[in-house]
Amino acid sequence: MISNDTYVEIEYYQKTKTGEDVCGDDFKTVSLEDESRYIAVLSDGLGSGIKASLLANMTTAMALKFATRDMEILQSSEIIMDSLPVCEVRKISYATFSIVDILASGKVRITEMDNPEFIHLRGHEEIHHEKLKQVSSNWPDRELQLSNFEVMPEDRIIFFSDGVSQAGLGNKPHKFGWKREGCLEYALQCINNQPQISARTLSRAIVTQACGMNPQCRCIDDITCAVVYFRKPRRLRLLTGPPFKKDNDSEYANYVVNFEGRTIICGGTTAQILARELNREIKTHLFMRNNGLPPTSEMEGVSMITEGILTLTEVARCMENTVPQQEMAPAVKDMINMFMESDVIEFIVGTKVNEAHQDPSLPVDLEIRRNIIKKIKNLLETLYRKKVFMKYI
Amino acid sequence: MDKIKVEICVGTTCFILGASELQELERFLPEGLRDKVDITGATCLGMCKDDNYGQAPFVRVGNRIVSNASISSVIEQIEEQLKHR
Ligand code: FES
After folding, report:
1. Contact, A344 vs A7, CB < 8 A?
2. For residue A250, how far is its CA from the centre of ligand 1 (angstroms)?
3. FRET label pair with B35: which of A72, A281, A318, A381, CA 20 to 30 Å apart?
4. CB atoms B20 and A292 under 8 Å
5. How far apart (Å, rounded) are the C-alpha atoms in residues A96 and A113?
6. Ligand 1 centre and the CA of A335: distance in Å?
7. Does any ligand 1 atom lie closer than 6 A to the CB of residue B75?
8. What is the pLDDT of residue A33?
9. Tens digits of per-residue pLDDT, A96-122?
10. Is ligand 1 within 6 A of the CB of residue B33?
11. A371 touches chain B (CB under 8 A)
C-alpha cells in the first residue's frame, strides 16, 4: 500500500544505436484519472533505425490505448502483433513490450513480452514474483508473462530493453553480455551509494554504464532503461515578488522557515525582505559570470537566490526552447536542474504593485511576473509532469 | 584604518540601467585605492522605489549613495571620502 504522500516518479533514458538517426526502442507513459493511475510502456522494435522505431512506436501507442481502456491483455497483444507491418527481409513483424500499470493504491500489474524481465527492488533486496504465462493460439511462440503485486513506499521497478542486458556482448569481461544480473548488481550499487537516488538519475546511470560496456563506448544496439520510484515527494518552493501588504512580510518569511524541501528566492527586494524578517545575511557573488544576467546571492537556509524578472524570463525561454545546458547561464541551469530534481513545486508570488517606477519601460511589472510564473508552471506540468501549485500573497 | 565599504546594487533596475558594467569596478580601480575599499554586491538597495534618490544604478560608498553611478563617479566618491579621513 502506498500512501497519499507517495510520489510516483517515472523516468527513462535511452541511447540510440551508434550510426542510426532514430531510436528503435520506444517508451511512453500517461497518468490517468487525476493521477490515481499511471501506465508506462517500453517497446523494442525488431532491428534498428527507422523500421524498428516505427514498430516500437506503434506498439507503445497501441499498448497504452488498450491498457487505458482496460482491454483484455491477451486480446490486446494479438491485435498488436496482427497489426505490425511484416519485415520484407525477415518475413516477421515484431516488437517486444513491457506494460507497467500502477494504481495509486499501490497495486501494480506488469505484462511482459520478450523484454528482459523487470526488477522489483525494496531497499537493497530484489523481490521475486510468481508469473502467470499466457500464449495466443495465433502466435504460439510469443509468450506473455503477467505479474500482479503490491508495492510499498520507497520501492523501485526497473525495466529495460535488451540493449541493457546484452551490453558488452562478445567482449571481455562480459562475453555473454552484462545480463539482467549485471544490471541488477549495478542498480544495487547505485542505491547503496545514494539511497534516495532518483528514477531520473538511476535510469541515466544504468544506460550510461551499459553503453560503457561496449568497445569504445559505442552502442551496439538501442539502449533504453525506465525506472519507477515510489518516493517521498521532493519539494521545492520558489518565492518571488514582495507581498501585497507589508503586514504579510512575516507570514512570507514563514514560507521559508517552516518548510521541508529546497527554497529558491527570485528577486532582490524579495531577498531583502526575507533577510530582514529572518535576520540573516545576504552575500552577493559580485564577480560571478552569469552570461549577462545579474549575479546570484546566498543566504543561510536557502538553496538559491537570484535576481527576479530577467532571470525568470530566461528560465522560461530556455525551458520552452529546450536550450542545451551548456548554453545556459549558470543560474538558469541550476534553477532548471532544481526543478527537474523536484516532484512537487510551489510558487509563492508576492503581488505588490508599482514596484519600480524609475523607468516605465522597464519590464519590472507585476503582470509580467505573474505571466512568466504561469508560463513556467505550464511548462513544468506539461513537459515534465511535475505537480505545481501557485499561491499569491 | 577601516576600509570603505562599496556596495554595488545588482537588482533588476540597477542592472538594466548599467550595474552590469559596474560589476567590473575592481578592475578599474587605481592601484592606490585597491586596499582601501571593500567591494560587495547588493540585491536591491531599495532606492529604485523611492523618488528621492534620483536615477539608478545606485552604489553605496560608505554611507553615501551615488545615483546614476558610473565607474568614474564611484571612484571620485571614494577619493572624496578618503580625503576627509
Ligand atoms: S535595484 Fe538597485 S536599488 Fe533597487
Report:
1. yes
2. 22
3. A281
4. yes
5. 6
6. 23
7. no
8. 67
9. 999 999 988 899 999 999 999 999 999
10. no
11. no
Alpha-carbon gap, residue A115 to A100, rounded angstroms: 12
How would you write A174-190 as a 3-class SS string? ECCCCHHHHHHHHHHHH
C-beta of B15 in contact with ligand 1 (< 6 A)? no
**What's the CA-to-centroid distance between A47 and ligand 1, angstroms?**
61
Q: Which domains does chain A have, with CATH numbers?
A: 7-231 (3.60.40.10), 235-392 (no CATH)
Cβ atoms of A267 and A307 closer than 8 Å: yes
* Residue pLDDT, tens place only, A120-146: 999 899 999 999 999 888 888 888 999
- CA angle B15–B18–B24, rounded 5-degree value: 90
Ligand 1 pocket, mutate which of B47, B59, B67 (most atoms under 8 A from CB): B47
- pLDDT reading at A358 higher than 60: no
For ligand 1, the distance from its centroid to the CA atom of residue B59, given in whole angstroms, is 9
| Interchain proximity B12–A362, CB inside 8 Å | yes
Strand blocks (E) in A223-301: 223-231, 235-240, 262-266, 283-284, 297-298
User: Judging by beta carbons within 10 Å of its beta carbon (0-12, 13-18, 19+), is residue A302 exposed, middle or buried?
Assistant: buried
A139's grid cell = 502466435
State whether the beta carbon of B4 lies less than 6 angstroms from ligand 1: no
Cross-strand partners of A155: A122
Q: Is the pTM of this model over 0.80?
A: no
Residue closest to A293 by CA, chosen among B63, B20, B71: B20
Facing A294 at nearest CB: one of B10, B49, B55: B10
Place of cell 504465462: A133
CA A87 – CA A180 distance, rounded (Å): 28
Average of pLDDT values for A348-363?
64
Domain B4-83 in CATH 3.40.30.10? The answer is yes
pLDDT band at residue A366 using 50, 70 and 90 as cut-offs: low
Query: Which strands make up the sheet holding B37-42, listed edge to edge?
Result: B37-42, B4-9, B59-61, B64-66
* Whole-angstrom distance, CA of residue B8 vs CA of residue A202: 43
Q: How confident is the model at residue A365 (pLDDT cuts 50, 70, 90)?
A: low
Residue A287, C-alpha cell as written in the block: 564577480
Beta-carbon separation of B10 and A307 below 8 A: yes
| Pairing outcome for strands A262-266 and A235-240 | parallel
Is B56 in contact with A358 (Cβ distance < 8 A)? yes
